[in-house]
Each structure stands twice: as C-alpha cells, then as structure tokens.
Amino acid sequence: MVTIKELIEMSKAETEAERSIAKDLKVSEYYRKFPELAAIDGDLIELRKSNMLASLEGRDEYAERFLSKESNLRKKREKYLAENNIPLDFDQESFVCAKCEDTGFVTGKDGTLKVCSCKKDLLEECYDRSGMRDYKSVKPENFRSDYLGNGEKRKAVMNGLLNACLGRGDKADKNIWIYQGAPQTGKTFLSIVIAKGMINLGKSVLYLKCESIEDMEDEDIEDLKLCEVLVIDDFAADISSRRRIAYVLNTVFEIRNAAGLKTVIVTYESQKELLSACDVRLAGKLKNAGLIS
Ligand SMILES: [Zn+2]
Fold first, then answer.
1. Do 118 and 96 meet the contact criterion of CB atoms below 8 Å apart?
2. Angle at Cα 242 formed by Cα 240 and Cα 247, nearest 5°?
3. Distance, CA 12 to ligand 1 centroid (Å)?
4. Model confidence, pTM
5. Which fold does the domain 137-292 belong to in CATH?
C-alpha cells in the first residue's frame, strides 16, 4: 500500500539524475557546435585551478591578477554567447517536465492538486499496487455519468461516493458506507473510478473483492486496516459470513472505525438483506452504515 505522493518522492533521485544527464548532453552538444566556447570554459577552469593552488601556497599576489584574468575571460565568454545566440543558461539544469517543474503535481482548474501527466506511469503503478491491476481500461478522466443512461442518478451516486470517501456532506461522521445497486448497473466501474480518483488526490487506497479476503496473507490484511480508503466490491451476506472473512472483516471494520477511516462496501443486496443474513457481529456494524443507492 503506497500513495502516489510516496511513489513520486521515491522517484526524485531518478528525476535528479535525469536532469543532470540531460544537462551534460546539452553542454557537450554546445561544445561540439562551438569549440571556441569549450576552449573559453576550459581556460576558466584552468585559471580557477591555478588560483586555488596559488592561494594554498600562500602566493597572495596572484589573487589580483586572477581576478582581472577571470573578468576578461568572462567578458569574452559573454560576448561569444551573445554573438552566437547561445542561451546564457545553456550549462544549467532544466526541469525534465516544465509543466510541473518536476514536482509531479499541477493545480487543476478547480484548484485541487493533481498528478502531472509526466507521472502517468507512476499513477498506473499506484493503481496496480492498490488492487486495480485488472482494471487498466477504467480511466477516471473518461468518466461520464450518462454512460449507462439515467445520468442524473449516476451523478448523485458518484457524488455520494465522493462525499463518503472524503468525509464531506451531512453524514461526514459515518465511516462505513454501503453502496447498493442492482446487478449489471456499473457498480464496479464506478467504484474503480472513485478508488482511482482518491489515489489521484494522494490518498492510500485499496480496492478488493470481498471473496479475495479468504486467501489473503496476514501482511495484506494489515493494509486493509491502515489504508485511508477501502473499497470492498462484490460484498454479499453469504460470502462475508464465511468464517475467515467474517473474522477478518470484523477486526478490520473495528479498527478502521476507531481510526475514522472510510470504508465502502459494494453490494447488490439491500441493507435489510445484509443485516438479516450477515454474520451477527458484521450486521451490528452495518446497521449504522451510511447508504448510497
Ligand atoms: Zn510534470
């Protein structure tokens, strides 16, 4: 479980190296085209070296001569750069991505911080690591509420999910949410859009099918307790009542509730059906859940 911010932070050294390599290439390209410039820069380096040596040896009288020599070389260099239309910063590092200045984030039209397009690969990696490896084709940016007809309702569901995950709106205190809808109404699609959207906002997110908890390693179960947003898809009373799943979910819900972390369970069963057929400890927790349908 990792956030996009962490992945971008981890890639910083790589970006720095990329900047430095790009600079070296740029400089050597200019030197190849303008050998005189390379000669002047070589002279400047030599001059500085001998000045350093002189000062180490205590030959202070050299300092003044050095300054005037250096100033002459600098003037020569400036003139040469101007005459040949060489940018003054040709030997400086420039951003790999000018759009985000290598921060990895840009401010969107609505004022929120968004992951820059240059970090698209990292974003994909983050989706994969958050349980959405099988849903590469679902892109939050392509979401259209009228895709399956009844756009208004879908938009309301979408807003409900957003508010639930972000702890906004009139039931901001609810930590467990039931997103209920008939089969084949695009619940998984919407859940993935929301989960990816939360990742884009920098949150740690996990998406999984309820059934997969059965064979989950203990280490992964720890992540279920800690991630900021947990989406459990294909939740059904009979699946959640299996011994191991019921045990895990009960603990996970308890810990997440105490920490104020948001959980969305996605199901085609109604809250009433869930309450009557779920493991009794789980039913107790689902009784007070928020409902999106
Ligand atoms: Zn960028």
1. yes
2. 80
3. 12
4. 0.82
5. Rossmann fold (3.40.50)
